[in-house]
Amino acid sequence: MQSNHNLNTFSILFLIKGILTLCFSIFFMFYVGLGFFVSSAVAFDQSNDIPFNPGIIVIIIGAIGLVITVTIGLLTILASNYLKAVKNYNFIFAMAVVSCLTGILGILLGVFALIELSKLEVKQLFERNN
């Protein structure tokens, strides 16, 4: 019997999106580095009388962005593995929804994955593998 689902394709697409998200986290590493640079430049120049160090704010924003992007990237790769094994339907469904919040590539991948996951034959396939 021919199965008419695209779970292997979505598994590959989730893997690619997870890797791209992890690559995007490099931007936040540079942001943290910029924060350290600004922080050390302000600390080195004692002639200015600013009440706080603006480099600390840049470091905090960069660190929060880094944690969020790495977490989403790793969870997307984990969803790719679950799609390949056809298990954890709820986790994959939740990651497809989260993927819709992460830019145009994520919106396209998330919407099409949600459409695919909503098919009755795909739901039954996940129920058989539990």
Summarize the structure.
The protein is an all-alpha fold and 130 residues long. The protein is built from five helices and no strands.
Explain what the structure shows.
The structure is a single chain. This protein has 130 residues and is mostly helical. It has one domain. The chain is built from five helices and no strands. It has helices spanning 7-44, 54-85, 89-99, 103-117, 120-128. The longest helix is centred in the N-terminal third of the chain and has 38 residues, at 7-44. It is rod-shaped and about 70 Å long. The two termini are 21 Å apart. The model has no long low-confidence stretch (mean pLDDT 90). The chain crosses the membrane at residues 12-44, 56-79, 91-115. Keywords: Membrane, Transmembrane, Transmembrane helix.
Summarize this structure as a short list of keywords or feature phrases.
130 residues; mainly alpha; 5 helices
Largest beta-sheet details = none
From the alpha carbons, calculate the radius of gyration and give it in angstroms: 21 Å
Class from secondary-structure proportions: mainly alpha
Measured as a percent range, the helix fraction is over 70%
Question: What is the end-to-end distance?
Answer: 21 Å
Record field, number of beta strands: 0
Strand content: under 5%
Oligomer: single chain
Number of domains: 1
Low-confidence runs of at least 5 consecutive residues: none
